[in-house]
Each structure stands twice: as C-alpha cells, then as structure tokens.
Design goal:
Length: 369
C-alpha cells in the first residue's frame, strides 16, 4: 500500500576495513504537521498514478519518498590537494591525495524522475520489516555480529586501529553500542540487508524498490538540477555549514574520541551519536541527512576509474566487482569525507556502526517489482 500526499515544503526544479578515513572516523523540522501536509489522497496497490507521479508518497512501512526530477549535473570533484589544504589544513597530505577516484568531473544526465527516501531507513522501520518478513540480518545470521561503541575499548589495541569494537555478536542492527530510538537511522546493516528490504517491499507493494545508483545519489545530494551550482555541501563550501545541515563529527562527538578532536568541527550539534532522522535542515529536494548520520549504501560496484569511462545517461557503475559504494558520511565522519563528491566503499557483507541505508523507488508505476 502506498499513500499519496501533497508536499508543501521546498522541492524544486570514510571506510572501516576498506576505505574509512573517519576511523578511526541549525536544526530543521522533521515531518511537517498534519495541517501542513494533506491527508492521504489515494491508496495505490498496482494502480496507475492519478495523473502524474505525486511529489511525495508514503509506503506501507511509513517511509516517505520525495520525487526527484530528471535533469543533468556535473558529477565528481576536480579540487586539487593544494586547494583542499586551504580549507582542511589539519589533514595529512596523503589524505588529500587519496581522492583521485572523485574525478574526472563529468556530466551526467538522469533521464527519468525517481523517488528517493526522504529520510534514511529507521530502526523502527527496519524492525517492522523483520517482523513482517522473517528476514534475518547478516550480522545475526552468520553469527559474527557487527561493530559497536564501547567506552572501555582502545582503538590502539586493535590490529587495524579501528574506532569501534567488533566484529562481536553482541553488536547488530539493534545494538550499535549506544542508545537509539525508533526514529534513528538503522546501523550495522549490510548491502545485502538493504537489497533484501527493497526486494521484500517490491513484492509486497507491486512496485520496484531498489538502492539508488551512485549517480542518482550524488544528483539528489547536490539538489541543483539544471542550475550549474556546485558546492562541497548542501549549505555551501564551508565545512562549518554542516553544523546546521548534518550530524557529523563535531565537538559533541569528539568528547568520546579526544585523539581525533583536531578533525572535529568547532561547534556542537547536540548529538554525540546518531540523531533522529530529519533533525537537520533538508536540501533543495526536501531530503534530510544526505550528509552525515549514517553512510548510505548505493547500488553500484566500486571502480576507482569509473568516472573516466562513465556514460552520460543514467550510469549504472561497473558491471562487476567485489566492493559496493556507500555515500554521505555518518555521525562520526570528518568533514572532508562528508562532501557531496566523496566516494566510500566496502564489501556487500560489511556491517558497521556507522552504516545504514536509504531506498529509492521507481516513479514509473508500470515498473515491474
């Protein structure tokens, strides 16, 4: 069942075992009140949209999706290490040089509108999926668990210097080592877990749910369709803009990781760990937490030279690989790695206390599940 709503808000026309530089690592409104968002207008179950795809829909798990228009944009970044060093002087040169996979900048055309989750998938939504489907997340099914925060754990004692303890069976989607409410982003989920949720929703509702492509994700993050505007973050080029638009590594979180305090933003967003989804300002497409809170899996295999060979129209990424891309940064991510252009990756089986998901939904009601 999919409910159609009228949207009244703005909607215009890095790496644990793989690549995790964050290892170690104003508020906006959430959902608008009932007076600002019309009641359910139509229930869709395999039927066509009334006239055209509505600007916002809500599905059977209570997930809201925003309609992202077709359009084109310049994907990637061509900033040099020297240019980045002016904004990020505390980063070692090697970190600034290790960003070559963000280029070359290339034009991408998203030829069809699509829906993207207004928020990251929450703990409560993921729980309802598990209860209704019987699916067992990989962190539990394989018995190895996930990663979690333990104040007694010292990263210096682990072989990799990892910021978090794990793998350990006591950590999973329902225990990342700190308290979460049902409105927080679910963590410790694998790429395979995300695909399982999308596939189950597709079968249940008769519409095609999926993970967004890497190109769709960056296009939606930039939210500047057709304007030619390019900034590092939705709030501009200044990392300090993240304090009002994202839950990333700042002075609030750094209190628990003093060894990395020099990478923290010099301000307090009030959240030492995850924040309820929608706690910060949305971007131009009405999407929340595209920077920070939880890394988000996308559909693509990772390729270091993908951009050099990418087609202009609706790129899907490499045909094969062994690592999947994730985007956006997390509550523990340093500002350099929360930029729109930054690419993160890991194996499809990876689960981590910084990694969640956001789903996409085809806007064409005729798309097979």
């Amino acid at each position: 069942m999919v409910s159609v709503f009228t949207h009244t808000g703005a909607c215009p026309g890095a790496r644990p075992a793989g690549k995790d530089p964050g290892k170690g690592p104003g508020k906006g409104a959430g959902l608008r009140p009932a007076a600002a968002v019309a009641a359910v207008l139509l229930v869709l179950a395999g039927t066509a949209w009334p006239d055209k795809p509505p600007p916002m829909i809500e599905n059977s798990l209570g997930m809201s999706f925003m309609l992202i228009p077709a359009g084109d944009f310049l994907m990637g970044s061509d900033e040099t290490p020297a240019a980045l060093a002016k904004t990020y002087p505390q980063y070692e040169t090697r970190r600034l040089q290790d960003l070559s996979d963000e280029g070359p900048v290339h034009r991408v055309r998203i030829t069809r509108p699509f829906y993207l989750g207004r928020h990251e998938v929450t703990v409560g939504q993921f729980r309802r999926f598990l209860e209704a489907s019987g699916y067992v997340p990989e962190s539990i099914a394989d018995g190895t668990g996930g990663y979690g925060y333990n104040p007694a754990y010292d990263p210096a004692t682990s072989p990799r210097g990892d910021a978090f303890e794990g793998r350990d069976p006591r950590y999973s989607w329902h225990n990342p080592g700190f308290s979460q409410g049902d409105d927080h982003p679910v963590l410790n989920v694998t790429w395979n877990d995300a695909v399982a949720l999308a596939d189950w929703l597709s079968r249940r509702e008769g519409r095609r749910y999926r993970l967004p492509t890497e190109a769709e994700w960056e296009y939606a993050c930039r939210a500047h369709a057709g304007s030619g505007q390019r900034t590092r973050y939705q709030g501009g080029d200044d990392p300090a803009s993240l304090l009002t638009t994202a839950n990333t590594f700042d002075a609030t979180a750094a209190a628990n990781w003093p060894r990395w305090a020099h990478f923290a933003l010099p301000g307090h967003d009030g959240f030492a760990f995850t924040a309820p989804v929608g706690s910060f300002a949305p971007n131009g497409f009405g999407l929340y937490d595209m920077h920070g809170n939880a890394w988000e899996w996308v559909a693509d295999w990772y390729g270091e030279d993908t951009y050099a060979n990418s087609p202009e129209k609706d790129p899907q990424g490499p045909a094969e690989g062994n690592r999947r891309v994730r985007r956006g940064g997390s509550w523990h991510t340093w500002s350099l790695y929360a930029r729109c252009a930054y690419r993160n990756w890991n194996s499809p089986q990876t689960r981590y206390t910084l990694v969640g998901m956001r789903l996409a939904l085809d806007a064409d009601p005729g798309s097979p599940p």
